[in-house]
Structures are given as C-alpha cells and as structure tokens.
Amino acid sequence: MLFRVIVSPDNIRRVDISESLCSVEHLKNILQERLELAGDILIQFEDPDFGNELCNLTDIKELPKDKAVLKILYQGAIQQRDESASSISSTPSLNDLLPSTSTSRSSTLHLTQRDSGMENTFSMRRKEIVGKQPFVSDVMNRWLALFFEEQICAEFFRVTRVELMKTFLSSLDEHSAQLIKLYRSRSGKLEKELKNLLDIFDEKTTDVLEYRKSTALRGLPLYLKEQSDGFLKTCLDTDPVDVAVQGMELGILTVVEDDVGTVNSFPTTRSIALIVEEQIVLDDISSFPTAFALLFGLIYALNLDYPKNLRYTFEVIQKVFLNLGTDCSARVQALKNSLLK
C-alpha cells in the first residue's frame, strides 16, 4: 500500500508498504522505523467519506484501499532525527561530515521506543535481509535504526543469543597480552609489518592498556598471514569522503587530525567509522576495539560474508572471542591452543 506521510510542513514522505497491515500499531511501528520517528505518535488519515478531512486512525480497516495520505502528530515531548546531516556537498571532507552524523544520532535516539519497534519487526526484517540480500543502501533506507550502536548489539543478540560487546571485550581483555607475546615471537621478512606495529606500541607511554587491545586486533591478520589492506584504513580528517572510502567494501576507517605537528608523534584520532560498500554506515565510535566488535555485529545483522582474504581473522573473532561454533580450522585451532597455554 502506498502512503503520503506528512511528518511536518517541510518533511513530507512517500512510503510504500508491501506487507499486509494487521493493526494501527503495526503501521505505527513500520512508520517509526522507516521515517526514524521517536516517541509516542498519533496517526491521522484523510477520510474520503468526509471530503478528505483528517480523522484519527483507530482501526486499520478505516484506511482507503491502495493508497492514503497520513499525518503524524506527536504526543508529549517528541524528537525526530535531524535530517539536515544528509544535505552535504558532493565532495565533503571527513572533518565536516563525521561529527555531525554522530551528534544527530545521539541527540535524537529514544531507546525504549526504538528497541520495541525493532523487536516487533525482527522476523520480517530477517526474512527480507536473508532472503533478498539487499544492498546496504537499501537496508539503510528501510531499517535505518539498524545502524545505531545499540541496535547492532541488540540485533546480534536476537540472531545469536550472545551479548556482543560484553563477550567480545571480555575475551579481548583475556587474550590481548598473550596475543602480543605471540606476535613478538614471530621473526623473518614476512613479519616486518607486525614488527612495525609492535614498535609503535612500545613507544606508547599513555593509554597503554587500551592501545594494547587495539594492537592485538590490528596484528591478528598479520599473525595469521592475511592481508588487511582495504579492511583497515587510516586517513586525514581533511580528505574527501569519496577518496577515503574508495575500495572499502567492508572495513574500519580511522580518521586522524591533519596536523603537521604530529608527523613524528601519535596523531590525534578524530573519529573511527564503519564502512560497508564504500559508504560510512556508523561513525564517531569510541575506540578501535568497539569498532571491531560493532563491525562483526553488523556482519551478522546484514547477513554479510566475511572478507575472503580475512577468513581466519574473522574465524578467530567468531569461535575464540565470541564462542560461536566449535570446529576450528587448523590455523585457528593452533592459535587457540597457544592462547590457552
């Protein structure tokens, strides 16, 4: 059924709902997800029996067939996601883009209503994502709330019954020191990148524990003899967005401050972002380990394949860090045995 939805005088949207609507609450949940509406809303519709005057929608059967005009009214203190962040120039810099999107997310999110809506539509969403395998841009248009940190974790739990962040970070705390020891045991020409990573870690004098966790994760592909090019990338906050994400089908982008004074020291991290299909889907993440966990959760939420060149890295995250599955490949089993020594 096709709807013309009036959210505000300057925000009028076209919404096409293919599934059968069973109740007003069902319609409300879908509109809240599609249009990113938070809080308690009231739906009115143009009633053809009264010259298309607005009436409160109390029964889904009151709607005209095929298409209808709806108006959204807010009950109580309601906030809606600020859509202005999307009206950026064609080649914005990351310095302009990254802070604005995160601020919009944090300032407009009402967790209780969003969690309820996502829980109610989980079955329908999984059927669409698994069955149709849509592009990430289509999923963002359809289920934008799925790209918030708390909803990535919630969706991961719905799929696996495992608490993503708690389990991942706990395992990282447990294994990071031993992973660093294993990295140091490697020698030879093939381990040059790994040695460079450890040299940088050894120079750190502040936030050492946090940096050790990041180093453990960054070194994992190198230790497993996999290539992380195109998966882990660092750029300046003045770089154009389209250049920064070019070639990144799935990965983590670390944005650092463009400051000549930090050439020979540790640059200031401005933002950490998740990239899927060459577009930023989540930014301003608090730490690299958090970003890694969220990306893994997003893979499950979007039913994505692991990157082929990082199959062992993600197998470690799945089977060693999150205890999902027991049968390990020989390479991962060897690492697992080393971690348990």
Automatic annotation (TrEMBL):
Protein's UniProt name: Si:dkey-88l16.2
Biased composition regions of type Polar residues, renumbered to the chain: 85-94
Organism of this sequence: Nothobranchius kadleci
Chain intervals with Low complexity compositional bias: 97-111
PANTHER family: SI:CH211-193K19.2-RELATED (PTHR31025:SF27), SI:CH211-196P9.1-RELATED (PTHR31025)
Chain residue ranges for the region called Disordered: 84-116
